[in-house]
Structure formats: C-alpha cells, structure tokens
Queue: 4 jobs
Job 1
Amino acid sequence: MSNHAKHFFSRGWCKFDSDASLLRWIEAALPAARAARHDPAQAKWLRYQGTWFAGVNALDNNAAGDVAGSGPLQGRVIDFIAAELGLEEFAWDRAQVSICYPGYPRPMPGESQGRAQYRRDRDAAHVDGLLREGPQMRRHLREYHGFILGIPMVEFDPAASPFVVWEGSHEIMRSRFAERFAAIAPEQWGEEDVTEVYHAAREQAFALCERVEIHARPGEVFLAHRLILHGMAAWGETAVAGPDGRMICYFRPATFGPQEWLHNR
C-alpha cells in the first residue's frame, strides 16, 4: 500500500504534490470560477456579511470535469481515486467554488448565537450528505458522495480560512452509523432521523481526534474521506490573500448508494 493510501485510510485524508496536469486545468478553469463569483444568478451564495461565497455547484464543468476547454480532470490524485477507491468512469458533479475573505465568519442576520459560535469555535464542522430538514432542522442522510477533492485555485496564506479535518473521525462516523442503521434496509436510511447519533459522533470526534488544518497551493490537491468530520477555520488575524480571496474548488461526486457510502473503505 502506498504512503498516500496509508495516510488516507488511517487518517481520512491525504495531500498530493504539484501536478502539471492540474495546473493546466486550473489555468483554464480559473476564469470560469471568477465569472461564477460575479454571476448575478449565483449572488445567493454570498454569506456572512460578504465574507464567504459558498458557490455550491457554481462551476460550469461537465461530467468529465472539463470546463472552458480545460480537458477532463487528470493527474496522480485521479489515478489514486481509481486505484485505491475503485472509482472510475463516474460523472463529476459541478464543483463548488468556495471563496473566503478577511473577517470570515461574521454573523448572519437572524441566526442564533449558538450557530454563530459553532461556526467560529468548531469550524462549522460537519459530514457531507447529512442534510437539515423540516422546521426542527433534523438531520437525514440524503447524499452519497464518493470523496471530497479540494483544488486550490490561487495562492493564499495558510491561515486564510483553511480546510480543517478531525483525523480518524471517518471511522467514528462509520461505527456510529453502522450501529444506528444495523436493522434497517439501506433504501430506508434516508427516512431515519439521525440527528442524535450524528451529534454524539461529532462530540466523540472532537474529544478523541486531532484537529488538522490543511493548506495547499495551486497544482497541489487534497483528498478527504467522504465520512470525515471537516470544516473551514476562521480567517486568521494576520492572514493575507489576493483579490480572489481564498478560492478552492471542491468536487463531491455521487458515486454509489447508501450501503457503499457507509461500508466501502
């Protein structure tokens, strides 16, 4: 097993050195990412008093990852996804264009003090695919991503709202949800209210797992396990970035169903 694979499966993430094919993709895709930021149709994603552009599915790439003639996504990380995760010939989702600015996170108008504090003190830590629904905002499993791929698009300071993971938390999540869903058919998992077990698993991860901030430069990428607890840190007091802010494109393709989401490595 490669060092990348050992790191990924034990800690829940790994980082890849600069790759010329990804640099070429960034060169072609960056104008499209900038255009998404200023597209009036995407203005709803500017949040927290203008300190974060969430940019969900804002990049206009196709199912091969091609945007603006960039060609499909290629490189060592793509080879790793195929060889180690067994994921090939899937459809790439439209990437999130996540852009942070100095001051993140300022409070949202009308939000509770608890939610603002959680975002500030716990990096808004979450597991993707567990969506809040209904008046009581109860958690349900609705999306089954294969992984999280982060592609930095520009240079920025390591303290400029880095991506954060709790190492090893993917196995805590797996264990807790395997127990919760043990007697339930996978096709019914989405109908289950998993709020309590999810909150308990988060607290266990906070208590037992090391919080790690991940920084990468354009051409470098990081890959996170689909079950890992992760978030985005506050903008550091001395952090600097260019006019594009801290811009990262995230891909989270839906590659399988609930059974594989929980039990695949």
Job 2
Amino acid sequence: MDKIFKIGLFGLVSNEQKTLGSIFKLAASRSRQYSVVISTERHSADIVLVDIDDANSLNEWRSFSVHHSQIPVVKVTKTAPNKVAENEIYLRRPLTLKRVLETLDKVTIEVHKYVPELVVGGEEVLGEEAHAVLSDAAKSAGKVSLTGIKALVVDDALSVRKSMEIQLGLFGMEIDFAETGEEAVEYIQKNSYDIIFLDLMLPGIDGYKVCKEIKSNKPSKNTPVIMLTGKGSRFDKLKGTMAGANEYLTKPVEQAQLKEVINKYLPNIKV
C-alpha cells in the first residue's frame, strides 16, 4: 500500500525547494512518496525539514515546535556534527536524491513504523533497495523501548519469524518464537502472552490443535490467537474459528493488515 508523507519546510532557499520537488516527482512510483505542504499547512505535516544554518528559520521552527513537538524533525545543514544524539536526524547539503530519500525513508521507518516491504510469508524476490530498507527496519526495531507487551510467534519458516521479529519489534513487543506445535505448547504452559501468532501447518501438532490447547488452558484462554496460514478456504477459516482462533490472516500478510489486527487486540499500543 503506497503512502504519501506530507513534508513541511522551515527555510531552504528556492533552488533547494525546487530540488526537493524534482526528487519527489522522481520518487512518485515508490511505496514511500513525499509532497511538500504550504506554510499554513505545516501543522499537518508528517515530517518537517528545518534549515538550521539560517537563524530566522530556526527561530520560526522553535516557535512552531512549542505547539507541534510530536512532528519529527530533519535538520538541514552544510555540516552535520560528528556526534549525533539518538533522537536527532540531519540532512547534509547539497540535497541529492540519495541523501534526501534515505533520510526521509529512515524517519518513516523509525517514527511512523511504515515498512510495506515487510510482507509476512511473501515469496517475492526483493530488490536491493528493499533489502536496505529491511536492514534499516531491523536496526530501528532493536532500538525501540519495550512496551511490556509480550507476543508468541509460532511458525516453522525462518523468513516468517524474521519478518515478525522486525514487525513486532518496531512496536516495542518482547517476542518468543516456536518452530513446532509441541514447542509452542511448552511456551504457553510456562509463560503468559498478550497475543499469539500461530501458523496452521506445523511439524508435529498442527496449528488447530495448538489453538485448542491455548483456549483450553485457563491462564491463556482469553489470549488473542491470530492464525497465520497459506490456506484461505472457508473450510479452513471455519475450522480455525472452531478451534478458538480470534482472527485468520492468509499469507502473504502485509504490514497494514498486521497493524489492523494489533490495533484491534492491543489498542494500547500505538501503531
């Protein structure tokens, strides 16, 4: 699912603004797209760029940020400091296509948690750019503060576990992983989880039997169970519902679908 992120500007000379416009046009076919908003609409921006080499622009932004401190900031400058605070992002001049897109993409990942390249169970061959984005997403997930929410992911496919590790890690979840139905049952008996993602086809005990075990176990019976499976027939969904599954997602599962499920069953997590 493509998304257009609104960019607010504080300063930047006219040539730089034209450069940004050209870059954003060239990037119009990407999943992440960008568009500059007029000055009166900067309060609705997803990201703001501030020319910190210009005192007037810097002061204007400081006055603005008093009321809109939640909007992430990219500081545009000729010379970025060698040591950068963890919450600071710089964009060094001159503004090149590579620098601008890499910087803005980083903000969409770290702040807006937007990673459409993360497809759970997808068999697509990813390009070089997508691999770079996923690498950045994995790093970002490793830096997110834990929310206290604990998840169990049960799937025998390494690619699915890796994808879910990044997806859920971006939202500050602590995650346990199981590769077999028997291993999942052991985890459930020993631990308490806020949500469980369960593959249907597993070595040994299948997902239906694991789900029944979860729902028959008093400590875990109210835990949301989200079935992740390659099967999508009505019969399979009915069987999953009869086993007690709360939701049934057919692979490949896109990030937007996963966010909907998290919002539904874990409303206290900001996704």
Job 3
Amino acid sequence: MASSGADKLLGKVALVSGGSRGIGRAIASAYVREGARVFICGRNEDDVQRAIVEIHQGGGEIDGCAGDIGLLADVQRIVQTAVYRFGTIDVLVNNASILGPRVAIIDYPFAAWEEVIRINLSGIFLMIHEVLPIMLAKRSGSIINVTSGVGRRGKARWGAYAVSKAGLEALTQVLADEVKDAGVRVNAVNPAATKTVMRAEAYPAEDPATLPTPEQIVPIFLYLASDDSAAVNGQSLDAQDWIGRND
C-alpha cells in the first residue's frame, strides 16, 4: 500500500549529487520535506552552501560539501563525509552531469568528450562503487540514476552527453541484475524537457515557460526513494508521467 502525507522518507538518509541547483536541488528539498536526512554535493562550494541554507529554512536536516564526482578522491571524501554526518546512506541519486558541446561528432573536441564521459558516466560509477558496499551490508538501498531521452535514442549534435546517458542506462541494467537478490534496487529516470539551466543551454531559443519545473517532476524520485518501490528494480522510467501524482 502506498504511503501518504508527509514523512514517507522518515528515517532515511539520501545522498544527492548535483544537489545545489535544478533537478537535484528540487529532489533534495522534497526529500527533506518528507523526513529524510539529506547530503548534497556539487562542484561549486558557494552554490552548495546556499542550497543548504535555503532548504534548511523549511526545517529538517541537510548538509553537503563541494566536490567533483569524476575524481575518486573527491567521491571518497563526499561519501565518507555523508556517512560521518548521518551514519549511513539509504538512497543515492546520481543526478550530477554536464552538457558538453552541441556539435557534430566530426567536430567534437576530444578533451570535451573525455570530460563529459568522466563526469556523466565514470563519475556515477565511482559514486556507486563507494556507496554500494554500505547498502549491500544492510541488504537495503535505492540507487536512482538520472538519464535522458537522448540516452535511449541518440540525436544529432548531442555527442558525448547522449553517449554517456546511454551508458548510464546500460549501467543501470547491469547493476540491477547484479543486486536483484541483495535487497538493493537500481532504476533510471528520464526527466525529459524541464525548466533548468542545462536545458536553456541546450535549447536557447525555447520558451522556458512552456516546460515543467524541477519541482513538478519530483514525485517519481520520492516514490523510488520510498519503501513503496521496494519491488521496483531495473526500470527506466519517465518523470513526467508522474507529474501531479502523490503515491
């Protein structure tokens, strides 16, 4: 039976990468409202601290630190700090990513290619690699990977971003199959077109007023973090199918 009302995440600890703005921040804020203790990370210290202060104004427990998820030492520090602060990690939301150039493959700079793959795919591997042993030890946990429609079907001039998201869809499937009997679930979520800075960078001529806000696509992330989704594993879901839902 689906839970209702506030506190559906009471007692849970969530780590949200890219949690200082946009979709990650909306997820972190919603998790705090629902009773979770939340740790966020992002590359800019000022942005992280600003998000912590503003989210905390509504009550609840939130902390975080700056770091680059594409660097092993930073990932280890992020995870260790989160565990030191809150004792464990029950939910990992792999939201952090960068767009990279919107150019054809033939014109794509190799350095930019390496940077996008390093953060969007290898960085998420590193986050999972550090958090998964915590979840396996207690036979409980939810890993939520934020993907993209271009990771399901590639489109021209989406380059390394599309390739990284396709790889993340595959990583989700591989890991979900590996942990299916270990009490841990792994799912992917495609936010689709959402009113974010990254979307504006990708489509500068688009009217942002026509797009749902990050706050509107939060319901699927609440569901996957809650015990209501305990049997859901290896799925690739669409956030906008859940707009307006409370279960």
Job 4
Amino acid sequence: MRRYITHTGFFAGLAFLLLAVALFILPNPIAKHNMLGALLDKHEMLRRTDGLAAGSPRIVVIGGSNVAYGLDSKRIQDALHIPVINAGLHASLGMKFYLTDVKPYIREGDIVVVIPEYSQYYTDTFYGNIELVSVLFDVYPDSRKEIDIKQWLHLMRFIPFYAATKLKLSKEPGRIGPVGVYDRKAFNSYGDAYVHWTMPGKKFNPGQKVSEDQQVNPEAIKLLIDFQHFVKGKKATMLLLPPVFQSTSFVNQKPMIDKIYQSIKKNHLPVIAEPERYELPDSLFFDTASHLILPGIERRSDLVIEDLARAIPGGYSKP
C-alpha cells in the first residue's frame, strides 16, 4: 500500500511538473496569431493619440465579440466626426477582465461605450474562460497581475487542460493563404472584425431559455458602477448600451434580460437605450446570436450613431 501511495504521488508530482513547464515555459505558437492576439493590436490603437489635442474626444467601444463582430466603426466616426476605436474582442475574456484591461488607456475627453453580452451579467463567463487563460499565459502575460484570487480560483478549472494542450507539438501558423474570420489579421485599423463582411450567414443554434432561478450577478453590477467612477475620475464619460442580439435568442431570454435591465436602472447606470432596440431579425446574423453580417452591421451601427448623438456631452455637430 505504501509503495502504491509513493508511486501515485511520484507520478502525480511528475504530471504537475510537466503541466507547470508547459504552462509557463512552452510557447503556444497559435495564440498570438488567432483573434486573441488582436488584444495587443487594440492596445496599440488605444495607446495612439496621433493628431489629437489633450482632452479631444475619442469614442472607445468595449465588450465581447458582439462589439468586435458587429460594428462599422468608420461609419460611426464619419457620422459623429469623433475618432472611434473598437476595443471589443471576445466574451469569454469576461467583463471583469476587459474592463480592467482597458483602464490604462482611458484619457480625458473619451466617451467610453460599454456593451457587454447579456451572459456577462448572470453566468460565470463574467470571470473569463479558457480564452482568458490563453491571454494570461501566451498573449499578454503582464495582465496576470490584474487577476484577483477569486478569479484565479475560477480559472483553475481551465488551466490544467490548457497546459496539456501546449504539450502537443504544433507548428507556427503559415503566413500564406486567406485570412480566417477568427484570425488576428481579421481586424481593420478601427478594430472591427471585417473578413466575414462579404460572407453569407450560417446556420447556428439560438440562445436557449434561461432558468427562472438565475439571478443577476451583483459583482457584475458593482464592476460597472466602479468602472463608471473610474472613467469619471479620468474626466471621461461612460455610456452603457444593450448588446445586439438575435431575435429568437432575445425572445428565449427575455425574462433574464428584463432582470438585467431592472438592475441596471435601479443602480442608475448610464444606459442610453432599451434592450428591444438592439433585438434584430435572425436573417442579419452570421454564425452566433451576437455576430452580424454586413447589412446587420450597418443597421446596428446606425442605431449606435443615433443613440450616441443624443447622449454624448454637448451633442455633436457636422462640420
């Protein structure tokens, strides 16, 4: 029995060591070339202030892939005559991460438009999934210092599997060939994913009904309140918009959406539109209930233009 325990402990320790080596030392040759690698490019967009005087406004849009795969930022910029940066990327990074991640880049005069997916308000996606683990260890390791103990405990369920995938031999992605929809190069100079704009929609399963027992995560609401205070302290403005959502999925999840917006309004968060405004027909979606084809992107972008025109400080005027 003692020998069995000794052998078991030895192999468990060896397995732990291998996973640790994989996690911290072995590279992931794919991570910086898929869409998660675009986080670094978006940091660079946010860092640039070329031609902008101190206090000059920028519109910075933050969220998951409903933002990345659902806006034409140039269209918004041309209409409002304010530079636009699409900082949205992936819902599975979690709202807790992507709001913290953007803080160093917010500057005086910015109009920060936050558009989280509904799942961020009531599921543990708020804390991030395996995609966040990939960012923390292979895309932007400096961001590990922003993760608190509670979030690390949540991410522990993904870390061993992610480390194990790095033990598999894989080649550096080729630089020749068409750019894929979910590649790092699929984003334009405004931060919009654009490769799918010329593609037709695909068949996908809509969002399912949410259990009546599900409640809004108070930590999500507190994060938004704290973020609003942070933005205000930077002499910038935070605005909150509903995410775009496929009509069938919206109907399925309407009771939960109502709970979310009751909580948002109860806490006096600066939401500037009702959820129904961004419920769009199924025919306008690409491959998920949050990704739009080009006609949907144009329609959603026009709605955003109208809402921002009414809400931005001092309004806007055409030159």
